[in-house]
């Protein structure tokens, strides 16, 4: 994830912003057996991939916080988890509006 976040730093050259990277990499990083099975229609599969890309974009935008040793200690202590979920919801709403 850090590597993809570093690639996003060069978006002025590559035009691969975090959103573009998330769209490309989400199906591989968050592979779902449900999507691959025949029970998902095209529309449902598209919506699932869209959710995956929102999650990956959120992770890429917050990679330094999510993969820091400080966050690991906060999670072990059980504090601050709800604020992270609120941020994920805000990211989903922002992505849906775009």
UniProtKB/TrEMBL annotation:
Rho-GAP domain sequence ranges? 1-67
In terms of PROSITE patterns, this protein maps to: RHOGAP
Q: Which UniProt keywords apply?
A: GTPase activation
The cross-references to InterPro entries, in alphabetical order and at most eight, read: PX-Rho_GAP, Rho_GTPase_activation_prot, RhoGAP_dom
Q: Which GO terms describe its molecular function?
A: GTPase activator activity
- Transcription recorded as keyword: no
Which terms under GO biological process does the entry name?
small GTPase-mediated signal transduction
Q: Name one Pfam family in it.
A: RhoGAP
Lineage: superkingdom? Eukaryota
Would the keyword Ubl conjugation be found if you checked this record's keyword annotation? no
Q: Which is a Gene Ontology cellular component entry for this protein?
A: cell cortex
Name assigned to this protein: Rho-GAP domain-containing protein
- What is the source species? Chloebia gouldiae (Gouldian finch)
